[in-house]
Amino acid sequence: MSNLPKIAWIGLGIMGSPMAENLIKAGYSVTGYTLEQDKLDRLAANGGTAAGSIAEAVKDADVVITMVPASPQVEAIAYGPEGILENAKSGALIVDMSSITPQTSVDLAKNAKEKGLRVLDAPVSGGEAGAIEAVLSIMVGGEQADFDEALPVLEALGKTIVLCGPHGSGQTVKAANQLIVAVNIQACAEAVVFLEKSGVDLKAALDVLNGGLAGSTVLTRKKDNFLNRDFKPGFRIDLHHKDMGIVTDAARNVGASLPVGAVVAQLVASLRAQGDGGLDHSALLRAVERLSGSQV
């Protein structure tokens, strides 16, 4: 019998499925629940256990990990008679890896404590590739003792794992991450259109740019998306739209001005309004092309 903690995993989407599978590879027993039957079948095929409900998934778990799209989904799986808080065993550790508002994380931690449960907010950066390769950056909010307990589990999922402060801090840092990523993608997209309209060899240009100060993880990860106009979602515009709403609202609450971020938030929103919400966030290139007179 393994001495490793039993894991419940709620939410097996683009990120959640490969992350859960990496825990299985690391020797953990993982019981999962999600709304899509094919994702449950995938988990079972990779050595996990598919549960029929949240309650069934979490009842024996030492650690409950959640990875769902936004605050409403976190609240839906956490609360109510069929939710995590009512069905997890006393003393269990909930690690919410969704990207949600800091206040939602603070409220979840408070309500869980009343049920004898502990919570960490632990959103991630690195996209689908980072999830598959188990090299995610994980920004954590919560108590030091709970972080120390969760660290071996998180080390099976990522490479850069940092406790950023009390509950909600992980989400605040993730909001800043999404601000930087969106602005970076927008700058790359503008550069791509500028280079192409100037008749430059785009692949050669991006290679040399990525070797200098203009280089970034964003450009490394998204270069082929730009070159091939391949916008299969690794991280959807819909989700980045949600995240830009989080960061702009949080910044307003603390009195921080985000002039460039506000513009990029509007560009993300416009792309979504034009029907591109299901595409990868590198599809910001499409918005720049439209503004530049190209037929997209």
From TrEMBL:
<feature type="domain" description="6-phosphogluconate dehydrogenase NADP-binding">
    <location>
        <begin position="6"/>
        <end position="165"/>
    </location>
</feature>
<dbReference type="InterPro" id="IPR029154">
    <property type="entry name" value="HIBADH-like_NADP-bd"/>
</dbReference>
<dbReference type="InterPro" id="IPR036291">
    <property type="entry name" value="NAD(P)-bd_dom_sf"/>
</dbReference>
<dbReference type="Pfam" id="PF14833">
    <property type="entry name" value="NAD_binding_11"/>
</dbReference>
<comment type="similarity">
    <text>Belongs to the HIBADH-related family.</text>
</comment>
<protein>
    <submittedName>
        <fullName>2-hydroxy-3-oxopropionate reductase</fullName>
        <ecNumber>1.1.1.60</ecNumber>
    </submittedName>
</protein>
<dbReference type="InterPro" id="IPR015815">
    <property type="entry name" value="HIBADH-related"/>
</dbReference>
<feature type="domain" description="3-hydroxyisobutyrate dehydrogenase-like NAD-binding">
    <location>
        <begin position="168"/>
        <end position="287"/>
    </location>
</feature>
<dbReference type="GO" id="GO:0008679">
    <property type="term" value="F:2-hydroxy-3-oxopropionate reductase activity"/>
</dbReference>
<dbReference type="InterPro" id="IPR006115">
    <property type="entry name" value="6PGDH_NADP-bd"/>
</dbReference>
<dbReference type="Pfam" id="PF03446">
    <property type="entry name" value="NAD_binding_2"/>
</dbReference>
<dbReference type="InterPro" id="IPR008927">
    <property type="entry name" value="6-PGluconate_DH-like_C_sf"/>
</dbReference>
<keyword id="KW-0560">Oxidoreductase</keyword>
<dbReference type="InterPro" id="IPR013328">
    <property type="entry name" value="6PGD_dom2"/>
</dbReference>
<keyword id="KW-0520">NAD</keyword>
<dbReference type="InterPro" id="IPR006398">
    <property type="entry name" value="Tartro_sem_red"/>
</dbReference>
